[in-house]
Amino acid sequence: MVDVTAGDDRPLAGLRVLELGQLLAGPFCASMLGWFGAQVIKVEPPETGDPLRNWRELDADGTSWWWFSLARNKQSVAIDLRTEAGREVVGELIESVDVVVENFRPGTLEKWGIGPQRYRESHPHIVFTRVSGYGQDGPYAARPGFASACEAMGGLRYVNGHPGQAPVRANLSMGDTLAGLHAVIGTLLALIGRQKPGGRGQVVDTSILESAWNMLEGVVPEFSGAGVVREPAGTTVTGIVPTNTYRCADGAFVVIGGNNDSIYKRLMIAAAREDLAEHPGMQDNAGRVEHQREIDAAIQAWTGALDSADVLARLEQASVPSAPIYSVADMSTDPHFRARGLFEPLPLPNQPDFEVPAMHPRLTDTPGRTDAPGPALGAHTDAVLLALPAVDASRLEQLRRDGVVA
What we know:
formyl-coa transferase, domain 3
């Protein structure tokens, strides 16, 4: 069981969180809360558990490596929510926690009789953090909310890719993670709100669609004010020059951002193009936008004649923002990633050198940490349920015989 004691100085120590739902967005939110000290109780179906347990790369026992990371610091309680008895037990758990994180389709908890309205009077300080595809209301609320569809409708896919080609996605469930982050923010805001005089708990309504929408920067104001629809721009960003990806002589790509006026001059001097550094039409960003092709061609000619390490060394000396494009293998050996503790050791019996990503942000005095890997299915069922006032050994055994818990 995750140790939540008075000696734990993490900012969320003592907070009890119940996680309902599965896969990514809601569980990622709960993972972050747990990393910063909250006790997270995860309810899973007794027969299968969270599907993520068996996704992508698996260990020798058939468990996803990802599972050990996403379910870290959580207690697994196996309860069949399809049964009335299971929902009754979960209702009792809800009465015992500070926060419920759920990502079922809107209306599901209400159908089961365990929606937030039920606890408005009996547990007025509880926070219900609800993560869905399109929000808890509106014409699309009932639609299944997968990250791929919500990223597309939320605008992220439209601006991602090359002009005239099919929009592309990052090889990640970006929408789920963004929704999880927004859910964390909403949860913390609701917890602060309930501390004010007369404060109560409330519902945090987070959607994948709106989390993608929240990333669109100036897209909406530019459309509203100037009638401009921002289009995909490949490896660059519309209206900012130069910032692009350039191939080097060794075949590697580097990213260079020289869009500040003084940085632009240093970049072009490093590239032996003093003529462009002093060009009267390129002294501000508006002028450089007009000359984007000429500037990018000059930078590409320079990088194409040098190996990437040489390019990056010269740019670092000139204080020009630049970087290689890293894979996870590159990151794992980079001294900065190691010095910052971004690869957190989490030894497993069959993989003693296993690592998971340390979470961000980094707190200087009360940092988060991983106490335990994602647990076996139902590993904490007995301990968690027996702590409830209405559950004794006899009732627990009957629930087990009936297949309600495992």
